[in-house]
């Protein structure tokens, strides 16, 4: 009995000692030896492209010694509201300035650069690479037309290269400088894409879409080599002097020589040259 009593007493004494030590450690942490800092954190798991706001962000506390100099503090939250994330975030992860992209666009036309026009193109599941083509990707556009009238042989005519996909279906980029926008799972099936093309190429693209099929080739986002433009520059000196004419029957265009108009009888030669 005495041994059992001594064992029970020892158990309670050890338990009391450990409890008191835990309280001392907790008090040391809370009293400033382990200071914490209030920072902006993700309220839940977020995908790249999520909009920064009260619905997606909250205020959390992390030990100051683990605080990054790029962490967004509550005092700076107004400066990042209505911007978007460039990378996914886990719930409770601190928001860093590196994760913040440009300001959320107010309307779709804000995505267009000066001199660009928006054109929508129909795509099939095969064209969209089973939904893996996302806003922000770069593509080259070609017209698929018959090589010769009355034959089934087709050839691809380059239209414009390295243009940015601004929207896939109803899901657009959310900022003008956003590198890409991940599509929600329920929106990976879409029937059209919207691109921004230079205004001098928009008419040519629309004509090609009316008389044939417009196809595209996906390119790496970092591939800036303009193969078609380089070819045009190399052959610029070999072209006939004139202008390129486009029509429904000639979507690829044809060179027409700029011949001087015949002089009227009795007309002054200088006036004719001026015309």
Would you kindly provide a written description of the structure presented here, covering whatever features stand out?
- The strands form four sheets. Strands 5, 6, 7, 8, 9 and 10 form a six-stranded antiparallel sheet that branches. Strands 1-2 form a two-stranded antiparallel sheet. A two-stranded antiparallel ribbon has the order 3-4.
- The N and C termini lie far apart (127 Å).
- Strand 7 and strand 8 (171-172) form a beta hairpin.
- Helices cover 21% and strands 28% of the residues.
- It is an alpha+beta fold and 275 residues long.
- Residues 258-275 have low confidence and may be disordered.
- The relative contact order is 0.11.
- The radius of gyration is 33 Å and the shape is elongated.
- It contains four helices and twelve strands; from the N terminus they run αβββββββββαβαββα.
- The chain has two domains: 36-103, Type Iii Antifreeze Protein Isoform Hplc 12, CATH 3.90.1210; 108-255, no CATH class.
């Amino acid at each position: 009995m005495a041994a059992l009593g001594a064992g029970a007493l020892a158990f309670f004494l050890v338990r009391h000692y450990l409890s008191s030590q835990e309280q001392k450690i907790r008090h040391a942490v809370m009293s400033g030896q382990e200071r914490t800092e209030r920072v902006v954190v993700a309220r839940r798991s977020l995908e790249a492209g999520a909009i920064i706001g009260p619905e997606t962000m909250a205020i959390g506390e992390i030990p100051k010694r683990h605080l990054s100099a790029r962490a967004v503090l509550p005092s700076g939250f107004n400066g990042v509201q209505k911007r978007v994330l460039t990378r996914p975030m886990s719930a409770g992860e601190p928001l860093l300035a590196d994760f913040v992209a440009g300001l959320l666009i107010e309307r779709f036309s804000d995505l267009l650069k000066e001199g660009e026009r928006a054109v929508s193109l129909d795509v099939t599941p095969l064209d969209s690479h089973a939904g893996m083509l996302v806003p922000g990707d770069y593509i080259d556009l070609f017209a698929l037309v018959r090589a010769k009238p009355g034959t089934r042989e087709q050839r691809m005519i380059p239209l414009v290269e390295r243009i940015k996909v601004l929207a896939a279906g109803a899901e657009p980029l959310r900022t003008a400088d956003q590198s890409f926008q991940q599509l929600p799972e329920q929106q990976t099936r879409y029937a059209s894409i919207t691109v921004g093309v230079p205004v001098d190429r928009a008419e040519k693209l629309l004509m090609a879409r009316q008389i044939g099929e417009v196809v595209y080739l996906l390119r790496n986002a970092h591939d800036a080599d303009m193969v078609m433009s380089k070819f045009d520059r190399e052959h610029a000196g070999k072209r006939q002097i004139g202008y390129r004419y486009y029509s429904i029957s000639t979507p690829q265009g044809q060179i027409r020589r700029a011949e001087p108009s015949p002089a009227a009888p009795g007309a002054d030669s200088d006036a004719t040259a001026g015309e």
